[in-house]
Amino acid sequence: MKEKINDWVKFTNSGGTSMAQSKKSSMNAERVYRMTFSSVYSLYILKAEKKGRTKEEVNEIIFWLTGYNKQMLQNHIENDSDFETFFTQAPEINPNTSKITGLICGYRVEEIEDKIIQKVRYLDKLIDELAKGRIMEKILRK
């Protein structure tokens, strides 16, 4: 698990750039594709709880973004699905993701070319907004 956390930290610090930008970016993207969602999910919960937010709020964001329900999310966690599987099997990516804009680790989330990496970054941005105390209505672009 420590290796997965280290990979996630490296990815976060790299900005999760598009695969077309360099061979190194391609390797970073491939590493993220293979990371288990469950290992990062626990980090999302930890981040939220440290800031006085809840696991239920983290789940609500994931449900909104992906179209998953509680049981489907639990299945991905139990099966150690990687990020690529998690996002390619999502029932329906919320059409309001186009309203998620801004910087995450120095990169404009709306300009990330790789669609899987962009979805990962959307989720990162939404969790960051939660941890910063933003109200759920605004996080979910209602």
Set down the secondary structure blueprint.
Blueprint: H1 2-14, H2 23-34, H3 37-50, H4 55-66, H5 70-78, H6 83-88, E1 103-104, E2 107-108, H7 115-131, H8 136-139
Antiparallel strand pairs: 1-2
Helix pairs in contact: 1-2, 3-7, 4-7
Structure, explained:
There is one protein chain. Strand 1 and strand 2 form a beta hairpin. The protein has a single domain, classed as Helicase, Ruva Protein, domain 3 (Orthogonal Bundle), CATH 1.10.8.290. It has about 140 residues and is mostly helical. The protein is built from 8 helices and 2 strands. It is globular and about 35 Å long. About 10% of the residues have low confidence.
Biggest sheet overview: 2 strands, antiparallel
Instruction: Output the CATH homologous superfamily.
Output: uncharacterized protein sp1917 domain
Backbone structural class: mainly alpha
- Rg over CA atoms: 14 Å
Shape: globular
Task: Compose a concise summary of this entry.
This protein has 142 residues and is mainly alpha-helical. 61% of the residues lie in helices and 3% in strands. A two-stranded antiparallel sheet has the order 1-2.
Descriptors:
142 residues, mainly alpha, Helicase, Ruva Protein, domain 3, two-stranded antiparallel sheet, 61% helix
